[in-house]
């Protein structure tokens, strides 16, 4: 019987690996738990990596003028540059990876459903966009299998993610053997 290449997947650490969410919680995700036997996970929490503690005051994506910033409204702290530096360093040193499974709606990891506020103290989101880390993943790894845990609850989207992940892992192994 043929053995298949084991995909390498970067995953949000809060999805079953550590209690690192802003409120000190961890999300128990059945799909991530079942997938663990079939992939090599590389867990990461960008917010913890830039020195935000746990629990911590939440951060949010804020439109400041014409620029998106990553702010912690309760403290007034701007963590935009710290997140950009971490993201560049982490993604630049990642090596070969087949996919990403990130936390939906996260101001750091979200892929498309992140609330964007008109200012640090604004109570109402003005639009939705990408998180800083998640957006960089989409820009830097356009061919990778990329999803968030929310979208993977839908059977067809989950099937597409898994198929892409397995094909990319096989291609990586073929390239290695050449």
Structure write-up:
The protein is of the alpha/beta class. It has a domain at about 45-55 and about 60-170. It contains 5 helices and 9 strands; from the N terminus they run βαβαβββαβββαβα. The strands form 2 sheets. It has a 5-stranded mixed beta sheet. Strands 2-1-6-9 form a 4-stranded parallel beta sheet. Strand 7 (about 115) and strand 8 form a beta hairpin. Helix 3 runs parallel beside helix 4. The model has no long low-confidence stretch (mean pLDDT about 95).
Topology (elements, then pairings):
Layout: E1 8-12, H1 30-35, E2 40-44, H2 46-49, E3 60-64, E4 67-72, E5 77-78, H3 80-92, E6 99-102, E7 114-117, E8 125-129, H4 132-140, E9 145-148, H5 155-177
Parallel strand pairs: 1-2, 1-6, 3-7, 6-9
Antiparallel strand pairs: 3-4, 4-5, 7-8
Helix pairs in contact: 3-4
């Amino acid at each position: 019987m043929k053995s298949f290449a084991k995909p390498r997947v970067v995953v949000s650490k809060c999805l079953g690996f550590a209690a690192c969410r802003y409120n000190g919680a961890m999300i128990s995700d059945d799909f991530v738990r079942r997938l663990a036997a079939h992939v090599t996970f590389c867990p990461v929490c960008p917010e913890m990596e830039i020195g935000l503690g746990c629990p911590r005051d939440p951060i949010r994506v804020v439109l400041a003028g014409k620029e998106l910033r990553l702010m912690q409204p309760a403290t007034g702290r701007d963590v935009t540059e710290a997140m950009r530096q971490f993201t560049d360093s982490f993604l630049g040193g990642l090596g070969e990876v087949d996919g990403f499974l990130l936390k939906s709606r996260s101001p750091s990891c979200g892929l498309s459903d992140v609330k964007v506020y008109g200012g640090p103290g604004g109570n109402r989101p003005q639009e939705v966009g990408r998180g800083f880390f998640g957006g960089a993943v989409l820009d830097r790894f356009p061919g990778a299998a990329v999803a968030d845990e929310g979208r993977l609850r839908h059977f067809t989207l989950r099937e597409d993610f898994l198929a892409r992940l397995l094909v990319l892992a096989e291609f990586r192994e073929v390239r290695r053997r050449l």
